[in-house]
């Protein structure tokens, strides 16, 4: 169980790093477009389209890292009033609900991606990009997030087994908020 948690954490970090790299690529693409328009009165024609694809990929790749880092917006009312084991059980319930939601989302986006593969869909823009390429990041990102939710459940179970649940502080205190 611990090795699964470590593997999921590493995968989430790798996806977070990839998301950051895509952000740099997107920024560079926009900067090149600005230079080409200003200096040469031309355009790359694909900047807006590809920036959109990169933004979607960045978002889906960063989901699991954000969960691992506890950076998603959270409703912490029950979490702050619960003590000890009850707090961990609230986490387990929330992670299970999130995991089920993400599993359904993975299936749905996977179906969307597979439809683009089967129909060989292309964008209507001048680039005629094969849409399965940018759409791949949706099911992949939600799958990694589903795995991270499972890792969070396992991490909570390991915490329950360790018997150190009385030392768990409120999440809001841990995050400095």
Structure description:
The protein has 177 residues and is mainly α. The chain contains seven helices and no strands. The protein has helices spanning 2-40, 47-68, 77-81, 85-119, 132-135, 137-162, 171-174. The longest helix is centred in the N-terminal third of the chain and has 39 residues, at 2-40. It starts with a helix and ends with a helix. Mean pLDDT is 90; it is low at 170-177.
- Ends apart, CA distance between termini: 31 Å
Oligomer: single chain
Order of helices and strands: HHHHHHH
DSSP summary, beta strand count? 0
Helix content: over 70%
What value does the Rg take, in angstroms? 20 Å
Assign the structural class, choosing from mainly alpha, mainly beta, alpha/beta, alpha+beta, or little secondary structure.
Answer: mainly alpha
Instruction: Give the uncertain stretches in residue-range form.
Output: 170-177
Biggest beta sheet attributes? none
Shape: elongated
């Amino acid at each position: 169980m611990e090795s699964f948690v470590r593997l999921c954490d590493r995968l989430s970090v790798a996806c977070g790093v990839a998301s950051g790299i895509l952000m740099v690529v997107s920024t560079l693409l926009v900067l090149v477009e600005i230079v080409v328009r200003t200096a040469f009165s031309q355009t790359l024609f694909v900047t807006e389209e590809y920036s959109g694809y990169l933004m979607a990929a960045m978002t889906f790749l960063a989901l699991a890292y954000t969960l691992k880092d506890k950076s998603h917006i959270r409703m912490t009312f029950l979490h702050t009033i619960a003590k000890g084991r009850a707090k961990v059980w609230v986490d387990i319930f929330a992670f299970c609900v999130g995991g089920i939601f993400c599993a359904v989302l993975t299936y749905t986006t996977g179906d969307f991606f597979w439809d683009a593969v089967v129909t060989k869909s292309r964008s209507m823009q001048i680039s005629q990009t094969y849409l399965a390429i940018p759409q791949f990041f949706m099911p992949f990102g939600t799958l990694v997030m589903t795995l991270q939710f499972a890792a969070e459940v396992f991490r909570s179970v390991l915490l329950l087994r360790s018997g150190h649940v009385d030392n768990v502080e409120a999440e809001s205190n841990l995050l400095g908020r």
